[in-house]
Write a structure and sequence with these properties.
35% helix; alpha/beta; Rossmann fold; six-stranded mixed β-sheet; single chain; five-stranded parallel β-sheet; globular
């Protein structure tokens, strides 16, 4: 592929972090101008690292990266940085440009219309809901009108309407686009192919075709390699058995035995290094707090946001042990605000029974101290110190020995989510509050998590915009805030 047709090219690129964590080993691929590609790989494999290498915020240790110098690049990351939460909407968008834009208000209004969001320009970022912040991240990239658009988990926190708006925009987008997402239906609408980051070989495999076809191709290739290896294994075993038989005969038979062993060694060398599938977290249960009885929570009133104004509503919700409530509503209606106030016991019109322990999974992981190590965070969640149990739980969530002593802030967003689930398992709550628990999580883990939530015996309040996930969980009552 000639360079004048190439937007991005990696040539034998190797990269590792300072603590000897290899991400890429002589990885190569090339993207044409105007193509739209999905970047796949398991949590923590290094997908976001690849995006940072493309933007130039990270440099390769070996190999070369070509990015067309005439291209402008905009990168919508997974989350808005904590240091940006105090910015106003206008200040947030002004940071997207190196030079001052005097007519930026007009551009802000235009890009907010694209992402279907209305907001005053002096409103602080921290006052937007998680779904609205996801739209702002997307808008911050679109306002730059880039030649190369990079989106890292853009559908996280988005309601169905938001996902539809984004999909329509990308279908009409004629420039180059790279997307990380675990939303298969979303990806299949517009992708031209897949860049598959193999966490074991540290290589990037490039596939052309729609998303579902590529995933099927990857699975079929793995099956083919496994069948080939099985045949080799069978022949290797037969040759070793023959070699042992002839070796015991002595004389010239030992030469035959030697040839048999050499043939077995050649077959061993010819075996294909099968690409192993991403590991999946172990099945787990979230133990329920002991001694729960009667009513755990009741809600008699709440406040929702309509046309940017708080509107009080009278309702009647009671939750007892083993009852699951699904909370629905569009982005910005106040779901996260409600869950936060319920979790800290400050919600007006809501009461939690005395002594009930609340386990709260926040979509932005702000219940985690990013300066803690994983070990310290999990230890703090336990009633009694039990290092053996802690390590067993950590291993079940693919938190390796090395990762256990890493700071939470250094983990990928998906790994932070796994730490949050491990903490819930160790906390043994009586009331479980979950705000978008599928965000950032590898799609292979989701059935395991759904199974754990389905079997949870305490009271549970769930917010999720992923219907395929919710369908796997027993829901006893649904509260639609919009209605």
């Amino acid at each position: 592929m000639a360079n004048d047709d190439v937007a991005v090219r990696f040539n034998k690129v190797s990269f590792e972090y300072g603590y000897k964590k290899p991400i890429l080993d002589e990885a190569s691929f090339a993207l044409r101008r105007g193509s739209k590609f999905t970047l796949m790989g398991q949590n923590g494999a290094g997908k976001s690292t690849i995006l940072n290498l493309i933007t130039g915020s990270l440099k390769p240790h070996d190999g070369s990266i070509f990015v067309d110098s005439s291209l402008t690049i905009a990168y919508a990351k997974q989350v808005i940085g904590r240091e940006e939460m105090e910015l106003t909407l206008k200040e947030f968008f002004e940071k997207c440009f190196q030079e001052k834009m005097y007519d930026i208000d007009r551009h802000i209004d235009a890009v907010l219309k694209i992402v279907n969001l209305e907001a005053k320009h002096d409103k602080k970022i921290k006052l937007f809901s998680g779904g609205q912040q996801a739209r702002l991240l997307l808008a911050s990239a679109l306002i730059q009108d880039p030649d190369l658009l990079i989106l890292d988990e853009p559908t996280n926190n988005l309601d169905p309407e938001g996902i539809n708006h984004l999909t329509s925009y990308l279908l009409e987008y004629e420039k180059t686009c790279i997307v990380i997402s675990h939303d298969a239906n979303f990806l299949n609408c517009f992708t031209d192919g897949v860049l598959y980051l193999d966490v074991f070989t540290k290589k990037i495999h490039q596939y052309i075709g729609d998303y579902y076809a590529v995933v099927e191709e990857i699975a079929e290739q793995i099956k083919k390699e496994e069948r080939k290896n099985a045949q080799y294994e069978k022949e290797i075993l037969a040759n070793k058995e023959k070699a042992n038989f002839f070796a015991n005969k002595g004389g010239k038979m030992r030469l035959v035995a030697r040839k048999m062993r050499l043939k077995a060694e050649e077959m061993e060398a010819a075996k294909v290094d099968v690409r192993r599938e991403d590991k999946v977290i172990r099945n787990f249960e979230i133990p329920v707090q002991e001694g729960l009885a009667g009513e755990i929570m009741n809600i008699s009133s709440l406040t929702v946001m309509k046309n940017h104004k708080p509107v009080p509503k009278k309702i009647r919700i009671f939750l007892k042990k083993n009852q699951h409530l699904l909370l629905r509503g569009p982005n910005g209606i106040g779901k996260t605000t409600l869950l936060e106030s319920l979790s800290d016991g400050k919600a007006k019109g809501a009461e939690i029974a005395d002594g009930v322990k609340v386990g709260y999974y926040r979509q932005d992981f702000s219940t985690l101290n990013f300066e803690d190590t994983v070990f310290d965070s999990l230890s703090a969640a336990m009633k009694e110190n039990d290092e053996e149990k802690l390590r067993s739980v950590a291993a079940g969530f693919l938190l390796t020995k090395e990762m256990v002593y890493a700071k939470i802030g250094s983990l990928s967003e998906g790994q932070k989510g796994l730490v949050a689930f491990a903490r819930l398992m160790l906390e043994e709550p009586g009331l479980l509050i979950l705000d978008e628990p599928t965000n950032h999580i590898n799609f292979r883990h989701l059935p395991v998590i759904a199974k754990a939530l389905d079997s949870y015996k305490g009271a549970m309040i769930l917010v999720s915009h992923v219907p395929e996930f919710v369908e796997q969980i027993r829901i006893d009552e649904t509260l639609d805030l919009e209605r």
